[in-house]
Amino acid sequence: MMTEELFREDAALLTCEATVTGQGEGGVTLDRTVCYPLGGGQAGDTGWLVAGEQRWRVTDTRKSKETPGAIVHLVEGDPPAVGLVVRVEVDAARRQAHRRFHTATHLLCALLPYPVDGCSITDTYARLDFHTDEPFDKHAIEVGLARLVAEAHPVRHRWISEEELDANPGLVRSMSVQPPRGLGRVRVLEVEGVDLQPCGGTHVSNTAEIGALVVTKIEKKSAKTRRVVLGFAQSSGA
Question: Where does the UniProt annotation locate this protein (predicted)?
Fold first, then answer.
């Protein structure tokens, strides 16, 4: 059974009721969820499943390897029984960090117009690898990010057909992660007036919500790869 992905339409939704549809792969599958599974460079959500006085810690969320379209919630201890109705609760602080960092990477793409050759979004840092041999200016990037955050650009998603994507191949910036095919439509993320590209991740609704950012590291990973690592200004990043 496929899992209804509530997080695709509302990244601010942190809880829902769901029914356990299966056990295996280290956890349980649900008929619906607010938990984002590892993918597209973004880490999976953690949180809890709750039924009455029982609580199961969700240590990670992954796409099922056995059932296409299902999402596995990895849990500590004996998993809840199939058929049990549970309340799904996302770790709110972790989700918000993912939302802020993921939208920040879209701002970085707007400032550095090069193909992306790698991505990692966690709750402590965000990293993008760009396919270029051009040097990067740390101060200039930080100033550009601060400007885009302060300008408070609305952030929204919409769906386009696969045919529309094929007609606009320039929308795809990533060399390593391609939009999923076969569903007939593709989710795109728009930072108004700044960036537009396919993305299935969770995001803030306005760039002002990102807050102050710092570039914690710029590395030359190869002759044609430059890595930029972002952190929040109040933390040291990674």
Answer: Cytoplasm
Count of residues in the chain = 238
**Contact at 8 Å (CB) between 61 and 106?**
no
Q: All domains of the chain, ordered by start, with CATH?
A: 4-90 (2.40.30.130), 95-232 (3.30.980.10)
Residue whose C-alpha is closest to residue 113's, from 170, 181, 179? 170
**Six-digit token string for 144:** 């550009």
DSSP 8-state assignment for residue 94: H
CA distance linking residue 88 with residue 80, whole number of Å: 12
Distance in angstroms (rounded) separating the CA atoms of residues 150 and 230: 17
Q: pLDDT tens across 27-69, in order?
A: 999 999 999 999 989 999 999 999 999 999 999 999 999 999 9
DSSP states of 33-56: ESPPPSBTTBPPP-EEEEETTEEE
User: What pTM, to 2 d.p., does this model score?
Assistant: 0.92
Residue 57 vs residues 13, 30, 137: alpha-carbon distances, Å: 19, 15, 42
